[in-house]
Amino acid sequence: MEITDIRAIPLAHSLPEGRGLGDARGFGTDRGTTLVRLETDDGTVGWGEAFAPGPIATATVEELFADDVLGMDPFAVESLADRSYTDPYHFGGDVFVQSAVSAIDVACWDIIGKSVGRPIHRLLGGTQCSELTPYASTMYFTEADRPIEDPIRVAVVEGFTAAKIKIGSGIADDIERVRTAREILGPDTDLMVDMNGNYRPHQALESARAIAEYDVTWIEEPVPPENRSGYRELRSKIDTPIAAGEAHYGRFEFKELIDDRTVDIVQPNLGRCGGLSEARLIAGMASTENVAVRPHIWNSAVGMAAAIQFAASISSYPNTRHVPEPMLIEFDRSENPLRSDLLETPFDPAGGTITVPQSPGLGIDIDEAALERYRAD
Questions:
Q1: Which domain holds residue 338?
Q2: What is the pTM of this model?
Q3: Which ranges of 316-356 would DSSP assign to H, the alpha helix?
Q4: Which of 38, 188, 328, 361 is 20 to 30 A from 48 (CA-CA)?
């Protein structure tokens, strides 16, 4: 078996004017990503996602990888990440290189799964897993005025039993947002907060202490991703677990987060971290330091499918029969047709669970009409 065709397919969607949303750093109106489609000489098709803007991701795939991928045996997928660090030399740690590798890697795993008739989570060494617990990623900062409690009320009605909200715009506002979310969710649910790196360490520390009474499951990106010393300072001063990883790429950056437990939870994004092959290495490193792994997802449906398969494969070590922490999977509740419309059978978090596809590979079928509708090339 060899790969005979590789195509990068940029996708985009824009929110209506005045409907921008975001985090403490600002608003955004555009959603975009890039899919990669591989096809082999026997007609097997694999899909992956480079969570990066179309023009850059497409050029990276075509200029740096296409020649090597064409003619490649998809079963040699784990050599891709290694080669990306050495050829082209010095570019392996670049986010766009890692995004391109991620897409190609996941597409290869999709092909492998289809060729042997097994879902990817079983190929990665996971046991049979039929469902995961989704958490609503919600309560974004918005351009339009709306009561802050509305998104959490909607999430509860939809059946979510866990949620992550945006904070990071000031201590008083942080307290109000967390208090509101906790009151609506109730006392026996997981509530996470995301500061999106908008604070200096002393500000993040003040906020963490102010919201501690609301039983926060984890604090995500309390300081900028490059501020390693800030993470270490916070880690030594607060009891709430710290999570990070969406803005880190490849095994070497994640090793820095995992070593000495700089963070308690790593969050690789399967469209940026180097794909399933790198994510498996990252999960192995995390396990050796007893650091949890919870994938970050703000991708299209293809990236979500990869993250679900990866999450279903992660070891529960050191937990055994009585697992105190469910494998939480992020489910963005903002408007995103690249997630909701792209599959013939979209992922459905209703009822507080999300089904892990058991069909071969990623276990998804692309809706070709939707793909054409959102193409940006």
A1: 121-368
A2: 0.95
A3: 337-340
A4: 328
